Amino acid sequence: MNTKGELINVKGNTLDRFVLHSTLLRLIDPVRGKPTRNTLDENPDGGFSGVWQLQQKFLDSFALICSTSSSGAETATAVCLEIHDQIGNVLRLARNHGLTPEDLAGLKRVLQVLQEVSRREKPSSQAETEVLQLVAELDKDRILPIAERIEKRGIRQFLQKTQSGAQYRQLQSEKLKIWLESCPFTASTSRIQSWTCAAIVKLINWASEARWQYAEQLRTLLELDESKSQAWLDNLHKVARYHSAIKSMIKFAVKEPGIFVNIGILPINAPRPCPFKFPYGEAPLLAIVQTLLGKDTNSAMEKLEKHLGTQDVEPKLRKACPPKLTLHAEMQIVVFYEGKPGLVPHLRLIGTSKKACFLCDQYLRHHPLRLQASACHQKIYPSWMPPPYYRVPGTSAQLPFIKLSGDIEKLTRRELKSALTIPPPATKL
Fold this sequence. Notes:
By secondary structure, the chain is α/β, with parallel strands linked by helices. The chain has a domain at 137-246. Helices cover 54% and strands 7% of the residues. It has 19 helices and 9 strands. It has helices at 12-28, 51-66, 72-75, 101-118, 124-138, 140-152, 155-164, 166-170, 174-181, 184-187, 197-212, 215-223, 231-255, 284-293, 297-308, 313-320, 329-339, 358-366, 399-418; strands at residues 7-8, 77-82, 89-95, 263-267, 274-275, 324-325, 349-352, 372-373, 389-390. The strands form 3 sheets. It has a 5-stranded mixed beta sheet with strand order 4-3-2-7-8. Strands 1-9 form a two-stranded antiparallel sheet. A two-stranded antiparallel ribbon has the order 5-6. β2 (77-82) and β3 form a beta hairpin.
C-alpha cells in the first residue's frame, strides 16, 4: 500500500494510451517543432554574458562531458547547480542509465582543475590544455564515432578537391592551405578507432577552428562542391562543442570563483528501464483512432495507410512501440527535487548533454518547479518513461503528467485530422 513519501509509477491503461499516442505521433512525424539553438553552438570567445547565461553554458558544458558513450540513450546527462552555505555547493547529476565510478572519477579530475583555476593557482591557458586532455580521455568513446561519421560523410573527398582542384586552390590563402593540410583526417594514417587522446585533442582544436576561425572560407569552398553536401561539416561542429564547453567551464570558474571553493559532484541513482508490454488486442491502432475521431475513423485510417506507405499499419505500430521505457535524465532531476524541495537550485536551470526531447520539454513547462533546459530538439521518443510522482494529501501531484497526456492526446487527434497529406519525413533518429 502506498503511503506518503512513496513514489507512484504511472501504469495501466493510462501508460498504454500515452505510449501508443507517442508512438503514433512519431510514425506520423518524429519532429514536433523547430529545434532551438544549443548554447555551445555560440562563439566561446563572444561578447559579455550575464551570470544566468554563464551558468547555463557551464551546466550545458559539464553535462556534455558527462555523456561518455556513443549511445545517447545510455549516457544522456542532466546537471543542476545547488548553492548551499552550510554543506557546500553541489553539481547534482543524472544520467539516463546512471553514472559509473570510472566516469565519476574522471569528472572529479576535471572539477579539480576548475577549482585550481578559480583559486588563481594556474592560468586559464594551462587549465584549458589540461581539461582538454582529460576530456579527450573521458569522452573518447563518444567523440570517435562522431569522427567516423565525419569521415564517412565526405571530409576526405572534400579535402582532396581543395588540394587538386584549380578553382579550389585559387580561393585559398596560404594560411588556409596550411590549415587544411593539418586536418587530422589526412595527417593520421591509422584507423579512427585507434586514435590516441593526442589525436582527439588535435581533432577538437581543428574542429573549433573550422567552426569559428575558417567558417566563411569553408563556406566559400563548399559552394564549389557539386554535391552541396555539408553533412560532414555539421558533425565536425558537434566536435567543436567540446572546445566551446571547455572554454565556458573555465570562464565560469574564473568569473564565479566563490562557487568552486567548496563543491562536489553528487549523482542521482537512475532507475532501471521499465519493460513495456504492447497491449495485444485485435487492432489497438484502430481502437486509438476510433476513440479520438469517432465517425471519421475510416477516412483517417485510409489516409494513415497512404501516409505510412502500407496497408499493414497495425504491425507497423507494434514494431515502432518500445520494448522498454527509460526515465530521461531531466526527469530524474525533477523527481529528485520533488522529493527534496529544500535543495531546489535558486537559478532553476538544467544543463543537458544534448537538447531536451519534445516530451521532456513539454513536461518541464507544465511542472510547478519551473526547471528549464536551454534547448529542445523537438523529437518525440515513445520510449520516454513518465516520471513517477509523490502522493501528497490535498494536492494532485500527478497534474503535470495529466496535462502532458491531455496535450499529447489533443495533438494526436489534430495530426490524424490534418497532417496525413504527405509522406513522413525520412528523419534518422
